[in-house]
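A further point concerns the way the authors explain their paired sequence and structure data. An entry of this sort, consisting of the sequence and the corresponding C-alpha cells, reads as follows:
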Amino acid sequence: MNEHYSGPGIYIEEIPVDIPPVVPVETAVPVFIGYTERVEYAGVSLLNRPIEIESLSDFATIFGEAPAVGGFTIEIDADGGIAGGIFDPNQKGISRFRLAYALNHYFLNGGGHCYVMSVGDFSSPGVMSEMSAEHLRGLSALAEQQGPTLIVMPDLSGIKPIDPDDETLIDWIRGQYHEVLRMALTQCAELGDRFLIADVWGGDTAKEGVVEAFRAGIGYDNLDYGAAYHPFIETSLPWRWDLETIHLSQPASRAADGSLVQPGRCHNLALAELLVRGERGDRQAFLGVYRNVRVALDQYSVTLPPSAAIAGIYCKVDRERGVWKPPANIAVSAVRALPTAIDDQLNEQMNIDASGKSINALRHFTGKGVLVWGARTLAGHNNEWRYVSVRRYCSMVRRSVANALQELVIDVDGKLVEEMIKASVKEFLMEQWRAGALAGATPEQAFFVNCAVNPDGERSDPLAPRVELYIGVAAVRPAEFITMKIHL
C-alpha cells in the first residue's frame, strides 16, 4: 500500500506499460567474402568467421596484406631503359586474390565499418571448383550470423580461366559462380536482413555474351534480394609489387666496333637490392634505373569487379541521404577507365530485358567520370521490388519493427497493448515520412498500420505468433502501398 494514502477510499494507480521505440537498424554493413594472407590471429582461427573492421588498417593488422606480385625478370638496356619483360598482372591472371584491393576501393568510395570473412589463405590453389565450395561453406556459416546486411564476393567473381579462349571451361566456371550467387540470394530472402551485390562474371573483357550468360545462370528465385553491376573497373590502385623477387637482366652486348660490352651493374639484381645500392653508392646508375622500372610497373593498376565500390556507395548514400534514396547517378572514385564502353542501346538492353533480369551499368560521361547508371534489383519485372532502394528500405522497416517489439510480445495481451504497439509503429513511420522516406501529402497517404494480438484466439501451439502486424508504406508513389506482414 502507498504510504501517502491519508484515509480510506478508492485509489486508482496507473501502471505504465513501456513500449520500446522503433529504432532504424543499420542498412549498409557489408561482409566481404574472400581470401586473406592470414586465417589465424592471436591464436584464434579466422576461417569462416565474419570479423568486424573499421578501416583498411584494421584489415592489414588482422588479415595481412594483398598478395605481392613478383617472380619475373625485367630486361634493361645499356642506358638503363626498359627493354622488355614488363606485363600487366590483370592479363596474366597471376594475382587471383584481390580482396585487400577490393576493400581499399570500398573505403575510397565512402564505405564504413564492415565485416570480412576469410574462406582461405593464399595457399589455396585458386581453381574454381575449390573456390566455389569454400564460398558455399562461408555462406553457410554466415547464415548463422547477425550484423551484415550486404554480401560481396570480389575474389569469386574475379577468377579467370587459364585459357581465356576455352569456352567449355568458361561455361563451367560461370556455372560454379552462379551456383554460389543463387545460394546467396536464397539466404538473403530466407533471413530478410541482407542483400546481395553481384558482379557479372567476365565483366573485365569486351567479349559479347557475358550479360546474356549471367541472366541465363542466375536463375529465377529471390531476384529482388540482389542487384548486379557491369562492367569491371580499371582502378587507380597500384599493385603491391614484390621487390625481392623482381629481378633485372642487363646482359652483355656488342658495341658498334664489335667489341663485347660486359653486363651492366644492374644485371641479376632484385629491385630491392637496386634500391639499397642506390642509397649507398652511385645514385645515377642504380636509382635512375629503379625509377625507370617503377614508372614502367606503375602504368598497370588493379582491375576489380564493381561490387566493392558499389557497396561503398550504398554506405555513403544511406549515411548522407537515406536508404530510401537510389544509389545511382553517383561518381565512382579511384577509376582510370572501364574495360568496355556501354552506350545507350546496350544500357537499355541491360536495364530492361524480356527475362526481367535487370543489370545496372557503370558508364563514363565526359566531364563527370564513371557513374553508377542504374538502381534496379535483378527482379526487373516485379512492380513492387524492382528498385534497390525500395527493397532495402522495406527490409529495414521490417527488421526495425521486429527487433523493437520482439521481446514485448512474450507477455502481451489485450486491446491496450495492441493499440500501444500500433502507436509505436505509427510514430516510427511518421518520423520516416517527415524525413522524406515515404511518399504522400499526408500520413494517411504514406502508410497504414494494423495490429492484432492473439489473432486466432487462445493458442494451442506455443510457436504460433502472439502478434500480427500489417504495415503498408508508399515507398514509391502516393496511394501505392507495399504491404508487409510481420509475425511477432
